[in-house]
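[09:14] KT: can someone run the structure on this one? pasting the chain below
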Amino acid sequence: MTAAEETGGTAAPILAVVGLSKRFDGLIAVDAVSLAVRLGEVHAVIGPNGAGKTTLINLLSGDLPPSSGSVLLEGRDIAGLPAHRIAQLGVSRSYQRTNIFGGFTVFENCRLAAQSRLKSSMRFFRPAGAYGVVNNAARHALELVGLARQADRLAGMLSHGEQRQLEIAMTLATRPKVLLLDEPLAGMGAEESVAVTALIARLAATHAILLVEHDMDAVFSVAHRLTVMVNGRVLESGAPQAIRQSKAVQEAYLGAEHLAAG
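[09:31] RB: done, structure tokens below
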């Protein structure tokens, strides 16, 4: 069985996760998880607190090494590679808590992110031409998320929603193929949530997106495919309507209000 068949599709995914597990002593935080993310698709991973969702993203991004299993990026197994190497190969992530430099400008935050993709990023004396590449990547990322006019503002002066947009811009500045978004709507008001949800939908046209999010209204409005995790394992994976109608998912997580919505 191929990775695409095992993870529920016929088209080759950009990112395929096969039998991925993570053990912490006697605790199995992620247990034989398989899923696939494709270009033009938002694949949402949902589940109750403690289901293993953030641990899964940490494994995919290289923040944690897996205990077993494979993570295939365009067919290449990247499981266990360090985070900076995975980022250079085209996988970028955001975090549950806003991870920006508040004392730097919006543009400087994006420029630092873009610079991380250069092989010479840790050298103090670099070819002058490299700065143009970095600056252009930073500007383009800010345009994509709608923050171009805020480029000269201190990042710490942005609203919470704008800071989350900036963090997404920083991931985009690295020119990724795959975006791993960990609760990007956390702490937002309704208006900010709508704006960022619309941004994620736009980005899906040119990226493969794995989204972890607790806002179910947003998830069902933007996701093309959902995977439900409970106790570290995949309970069910499928199209949004199929997940809405799943009795097992209703009992484990979604609740009656989402059953009615289906």
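[09:33] KT: thanks! Residues 1-90+177-262 form a domain with the Rossmann fold fold (CATH 3.40.50.300).
[09:34] RB: yep, looked fine to me
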